[in-house]
Specification:
By secondary structure, this protein is of the alpha/beta class. The protein has helices at 75-84, 120-131, 153-162, 190-197, 211-224, and strands at residues 6-17, 20-26, 40-44, 53-56, 66-72, 90-97, 109-115, 137-144, 166-172, 184-185, 203-209, 232-236. It folds into 2 domains: 6-97, Elongation Factor Tu (Ef-tu), domain 3, CATH 2.40.30; 109-236, Rossmann fold.
Length: 238
């Protein structure tokens, strides 16, 4: 076993949706680690070391003493996590790595495009910016099937109330004609993204979630808008 792998206890389990839960993993005593918001950790069960899965942190790097990951029931690992993980159980944790980092500078506007559980790292972005009372603008453009599929809905609204520079904008793709939903309907499209992005000179685009969504964002930013590569950050989840 690599030296940097640490056994951590699941301190708390929070159901976000019927198929999605947040695990809080408690750091062992005297555990120290240097990491940044937006990175991911890799988890595996003690009884199944061959099955490992990387999950973006949904907490911020300012929150010491624990890691939080938010997991949707999907695949072998995700299904076990959602259906069976309970407080008091233990998981092996490979410390955070990754380059999907928020550029939290005063003049920047982070336009964060998410589908489904791809919104989880953006909770960390919004938390850190709010905790530090930063002037960085963060706009999350979030595509879900129905309003019942919005992860962190209540917390995001609380962050909006606490942080005038943060916005969550949701579009629903599978509403029936008579469904009550005051917000936007349909898929993410170029017009909506550009409308909410505003001045492109200061924008950094982030995309996280299904491969199709991430690749569409990549084509928009690189091929259509022809923006430099340092204005684009991608995280594909398959």
């Amino acid at each position: 076993m690599p030296k940097n792998v640490v056994l951590m206890e699941i301190e708390q389990v929070t159901w976000e949706l019927e198929d999605t839960k947040t695990l809080r993993l408690k750091w062992p005593e005297d555990y120290t680690v240097s990491f940044q918001t937006g990175q991911f950790i890799t988890l595996y069960w003690p009884d199944a070391p061959k099955y490992k899965r990387a999950y973006s942190l949904s907490s911020s790097a300012l929150e010491e003493g624990f890691f939080e990951v938010t997991i949707k029931r999907d695949g072998k690992m995700g299904t076990r996590m959602v259906d069976w993980a309970e407080a008091g159980q233990q998981l092996y944790v490979i410390p955070p790595v990754g380059r999907f980092l928020p550029v939290l500078e005063p003049d920047k506007h982070l336009v964060c495009i998410a589908g489904g559980s791809g919104v989880t790292p953006f909770r960390g972005f919004a938390r850190e910016a709010t905790q530090r009372q930063l002037s960085t603008r963060i706009t999350v453009l979030y595509s879900v099937r129905t309003p019942k599929d919005i992860i962190f809905c209540e917390e995001f609204r609380q962050l909006e109330a606490a942080n005038p520079n943060f916005r969550l904008l949701v579009t629903c793709t599978r509403l029936e004609e008579g469904d009550a939903w005051p917000g936007r309907r349909g898929r993410l499209d170029t017009d909506w993204i550009l409308q909410e992005a505003g001045d492109l000179e200061q924008v950094i685009f982030y995309a996280c979630g299904p491969t199709a969504l991430v690749e569409a964002t990549e084509r928009l930013v690189r091929d259509e808008l022809r923006l430099p590569k340092d204005q684009l950050r991608l995280e594909k989840w398959g």
